[in-house]
Amino acid sequence: MSLTKFEIFHAVVEFGSLSKAAEALRLTQSAVSHAIASLEAEWGFLLLQRDRSGVRLTSNGEQVLKLVREILNWNEKLKQQVAAINGLEVGMVRIGTFTSVSARWLPGVIRMFHTHHPLIEIKLLEGDYDEIRHWISSGEVDFGFLSLTAAKSLETIPLKKDRMVCMVPRQHHLSGKTSIPLEQLEEEEFIMPKWGYDHDVRTILKENRVFPKVKYEVVEDQAIIAMVQHGLGISILPEMALFRMPDDLCTIHLEGDYYRTIGIAASSFYHLSPASKTFIHCVQSWLRSQSLLDF
Fold first, then answer.
1. Side-chain half-sphere exposure of 184, counting CA atoms within 13 A
2. DSSP code string of 275-291
3. Per-residue pLDDT averaged across 147-176, rounded?
4. CA spacing 20 to 30 A to 168: which of 4, 56, 273, 294?
5. Pairing of strands 91-97, 143-147
6. Residue 169 is inside which H or E element, if any?
7. pTM
8. Are 195 and 241 in contact (CB under 8 A)?
9. Mean local confidence (pLDDT), 23-51
């Protein structure tokens, strides 16, 4: 066995294709295929099923993938630690993120980080809460940004309280109000944000026994904004998602002061690589410089 074969196996799974993995690793497709075949022969079982749509893991492949990722992650940490001892900063930080953080925070954070640590590569995977939580648990990312309600069983660092507000068209009969009780939403057609099973809006409504008339469930914040804009219903979104809200929409505070707490989540902060720990410190420094850090 060799780390190179592990890297090839991981790349094939990540890209879903031998040819795309070969291109990313700057290898021939024949070399990639040979490496997979060598691992399968060495371990005595198939790792991948190949068909016209690409490749997918076998059940045995799924069982070893997490361990392969752990080996590669520890190898990355070792390389970073050796580089740090020699006065160098190299490596990669893999981060799970969702739309609001990607748009509002990460451009500034990454620019600050690259100014001081230009040799460290940043890789972003964007998804909903459930996907990010899975990526953290499976080792696909080093850590991720999450609403803390979705970070069960993970270690967390809270960063920011993000107020939840009701969004309506300006011509809507509620638009003149400065605040409304949650119960009033039951009288309105509602567009439910869908960021994962236990997302913030669904949790708030469930805990308060409020059951609006859900007409649509939508993942993307901008799609929700557009649907409200076209009069298809009202919705609840966090303020961070509304920084480009059209002029023909307005927000109304919810009585009770509801918010989501955005934080960083990881399986173990102690075992993070030096580069990952440095990036987290940079996130906190950037938020503090923008007067956005609440904790």
1. 14
2. HHHHHHHHHHHHHHHTT
3. 94
4. 294
5. parallel
6. strand 155-169
7. 0.77
8. no
9. 89
